[in-house]
């Protein structure tokens, strides 16, 4: 199995690239986020997930281990193949996927091509509790606990102001990280709004 490729970018298309490794070209499927940062002749190293089927061997490439981990988690969900997982990673970063799952924000997941409301809900349900340690970067706040009353009320307040559930969850978790778990609702909402305004 191929786990990593290091070489030069030979060509880039809408959904894949060819990596030249010592004269051998490997066709690698990748997210548009990864592909948009590449140019022909550029040196690169990709983490690879190899999928073997009766009729094909497909390589999926990722610039970061977090992307690979998110891809592997997504493809454990029934109905999510490699292409759909890449579509999700094309519109959401691993951190955003983890926050969407933690917040039950199926609408954000459904922004990806090939992901309908039912599949998005299944992803959010089946991956809940499985992505936090894998996909969140060290500097990102952990998803807030769903049972926290102040957090729930703060998210509802931000949603009423037009925030998407995923963005509201992230802003509130950052505010709670600043203020501590015993913070009052008004303070959490105020800090969450202030932090969101800076981004």
Automatic annotation (TrEMBL):
Q: Which GO terms describe its molecular function?
A: ATP binding; four-way junction DNA binding; four-way junction helicase activity
Q: Which GO terms describe its cellular component?
A: cytoplasm; Holliday junction helicase complex; Holliday junction resolvase complex
* Compartments, record wording: Cytoplasm
What keywords would UniProt list here? Cytoplasm, DNA damage, DNA recombination, DNA repair, DNA-binding
The record, for Pfam families, names: HHH_5, RuvA_C, RuvA_N
Where the record annotates domain Helix-hairpin-helix DNA-binding motif class, the positions are: 72-91, 107-126
Q: Which InterPro entries match?
A: DNA_helicase_Holl-junc_RuvA_I, Hlx-hairpin-Hlx_DNA-bd_motif, NA-bd_OB-fold, RuvA, RuvA_2-like, RuvA_C, RuvA_C_sf
Region annotation (Domain III) ranges: 146-199
User: At the top level of its lineage, which domain of life is listed?
Assistant: Bacteria
One of the GO BP terms on file? DNA repair
Q: How does it assemble?
A: Homotetramer. Forms an RuvA(8)-RuvB(12)-Holliday junction (HJ) complex. HJ DNA is sandwiched between 2 RuvA tetramers; dsDNA enters through RuvA and exits via RuvB. An RuvB hexamer assembles on each DNA strand where it exits the tetramer. Each RuvB hexamer is contacted by two RuvA subunits (via domain III) on 2 adjacent RuvB subunits; this complex drives branch migration. In the full resolvosome a probable DNA-RuvA(4)-RuvB(12)-RuvC(2) complex forms which resolves the HJ.
| Role this protein plays | The RuvA-RuvB-RuvC complex processes Holliday junction (HJ) DNA during genetic recombination and DNA repair, while the RuvA-RuvB complex plays an important role in the rescue of blocked DNA replication forks via replication fork reversal (RFR). RuvA specifically binds to HJ cruciform DNA, conferring on it an open structure. The RuvB hexamer acts as an ATP-dependent pump, pulling dsDNA into and through the RuvAB complex. HJ branch migration allows RuvC to scan DNA until it finds its consensus sequence, where it cleaves and resolves the cruciform DNA.
The family assignment reads: Belongs to the RuvA family.
Name under which the protein is recorded: Holliday junction branch migration complex subunit RuvA
Organism encoding this protein: Sandarakinorhabdus cyanobacteriorum
Protein encoded by which gene: ruvA
